[in-house]
Amino acid sequence: MNYYVIIPAHNEAAYISSMLDSLTSQSLRPKKIVVVNDNSTDATKEIIEKYSSKDPIIQVLNISSSAEHIPGSKVIEAFNKGLELVDDHYDFIVKLDADVILPKDYFEHIALAFEKNSKTGIAGGFIYEQNDGKEWQLNHPMDKDHVRGAFKAYTKACFKAIGGLKCAMGWDTVDELLARYHGFNTRTDTRLKVKHLRPTGKAYNKKAKGLQGRAMYTMRYGFWISLIASIKMALMQGKWVSLQDNMDGFFSAKKNKAPFLVSKQEGAFIRRLRWSNMRKKMIP
């Protein structure tokens, strides 16, 4: 299968060489790699240009957006800029972070997952991060069938059906919900252990506070699902302040009439799906 990889990168000099080495040595190599260097002030530009000079499948795009790292908007803006440089001749497309190391057969398995089931629209592995003892351990706080935003692969049919990626916090949740709406499912493979070199959330700006709640509003969760999801998040993080932050973000978005990411019909489907999943987890 042919696939393209788009990599948003901002100040990734410490990690991007390891990522590109793991990507270019895949048993199933990509047809094209677009690295979007977004306003980097370190050696990121020089490193990726060195790789592109040696490997013709790597293309570099330099852009200048804000240096501020706000979850969602910045990374997807960069991804969409890279998307403009690829054609339509692919079987699946990948949004990949610049700070991961992939197993050598990662995309071989992803391709097989898509080939085996035409209803599989999104696929990926699992993130492993180093603990204080320098041991690699699983970091996957979401549902086990959720593919992390650091390495999401989409079939062309699914990617087109969901209208690409939403430029907002919550993009890596709404994509899977919309995929379900359009009849696709997600596939995770426990064999695919991806090393994440920068612990999750380390680059997030303090201004991101409240964006989770805003995302829940714009995905049309409604009050009760947003509240339950925020309580669950606070319990998992051990930070009850996040509950207050989320609900503040939710009500602020509602007051300011923030634009929704999904239609009324899609929102109704999402709420039914969320309630159904909650009931399944409550009933043994």
Automatic annotation (TrEMBL):
Transmembrane region(s): none
Keyword match Transferase: yes
Pfam families (alphabetical): Glycos_transf_2
Database matches in InterPro entries: Glyco_trans_2-like, Nucleotide-diphossugar_trans
Stated name of the protein: Glycosyltransferase family 2 protein
Annotated organism of origin: Maribacter chungangensis
Keywords associated with the record: Glycosyltransferase, Transferase
Residue ranges that the Swiss-Prot or TrEMBL entry lists as coiled coil: none
Protein family according to the UniProt entry: Belongs to the glycosyltransferase 2 family.
